[in-house]
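Incident log, structure service

09:12 report received: a user says their structure output differs between two submissions of the same chain.
09:20 pulled the input from the user's history:
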Amino acid sequence: MVKDFMEYLTDQVEAGKNDIARLEADGRKDDADFAKVRNNIYDVCRTVTKALVDRPGAGSEAVRAQLERFNREWNAALEQAREHDDIRNTVIGEIKLDALKDVIAHFPEEEK
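09:34 re-ran on a clean worker, output below:
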């Protein structure tokens, strides 16, 4: 099941690279920059999963814990950006959390 998850993340990273290239070719720099943020989240989650899933004593529970840690930390950063009326970091925080929500939704349920 983790193999399917890794394939999903890899597919998202590749699709993101294509979106970034298309947006840059269209001269849509801001949109391309936001696509890079989103793509980076999929890539980070793929890297973390790859590092933890085969580590002795870690496995999928460690991956799930890390995704939940990202969620807590990025929500806190988003709230801080909102408190300071930091529009740029608010938008970036929302993009990061949206991508992370998608990643978590595709993370496999525990195997019985």
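09:41 both user submissions now match this output. Likely a transient worker issue. Closing.
09:42 reviewer note: The chain is about 85% helix and 0% strand. The chain has one domain: 2-106.
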